[in-house]
Design brief:
three-stranded antiparallel β-sheet; four-stranded antiparallel β-sheet; 49% strand; Immunoglobulin-like; 9% helix; single chain; mainly beta
Length: 217
């Protein structure tokens, strides 16, 4: 009887200890991203959707990009500028107020959302560049600003010209014409590029630091 009672006590104690000191539940790290062309055509928003156990909150977000850069701070949403197009391995490590971390890695395909497919220069009057721009992203581009630069035969820039394309749907193509602001018979060649674009991203981008009273993460 004493042995049975002793064994029961051991089982109960073991259960209590296991309940108090069981496996550590790590935060669940997760993120999404979308392009941002307001300052650079290769800027991207990254949004953390990471969560941790009830009663605790995430205090640090360590973003690691395989172009050799990283962002490590208290902000769950960040903007990163890539130097060139390509597929990048992006890792997010989140740490909660218990000091416990969770990690997730994803491949992010980086390319300008607005892309000039074709264009040509027409000399005479007016001098203009005509072409076609396409939306290569999965989001609506409310505005796409195109800028042409016009040069003489020696490479001296003589004048510019801009045009804005509105509401470009995913996969949609649109014809454009950019006229030189100032006419000159010396114009010999031109360049045209996407200067900027805006994105109808479903995420709400706000650089808000984590607060000690945060309970919804």
């Amino acid at each position: 009887m004493k042995k049975i009672l002793g064994l029961s006590v051991i089982v109960i104690v073991g259960f209590v200890v296991a309940s108090c000191f069981g496996p550590v539940v790590r935060p669940i790290a997760d993120f999404t991203w979308c392009p941002d062309g307001e300052n650079s055509v290769l800027d991207y928003h990254f949004f953390s959707h990471s969560t941790t156990i009830p009663g605790h909150y995430i205090i640090r977000f360590d973003w690691q990009f395989d172009d050799g850069t990283s962002i490590d701070d208290y902000y769950r949403d960040v903007v990163h500028r890539f130097a060139e197009e390509g597929t990048y391995f992006v890792t997010l490590v989140v740490t909660d107020d218990r000091g416990v971390s969770g990690t997730v890695s994803k491949n992010a395909h980086v390319t300008p959302a607005a892309f000039i497919r074709t264009w040509n220069l027409t000399l005479g009057f007016p001098v203009q560049v005509m072409g076609e721009v396409a939306n290569r992203s999965a989001y609506i581009l409310p505005t796409v600003t195109l800028k042409a630069k016009f040069y003489d035969a020696d490479g001296l820039r003589l004048t510019d010209g801009t045009v804005v394309i509105n509401d470009l749907e995913p996969g949609e193509r649109a014809a454009f014409t950019v006229k030189a602001q100032e006419h000159s018979s010396r114009i010999f060649y031109a360049t045209v590029a996407v200067e900027s674009f805006t994105v109808d991203c479903p995420e709400i981008f706000q650089l808000v630091p984590m607060r000690s009273d945060a309970s919804d993460l």
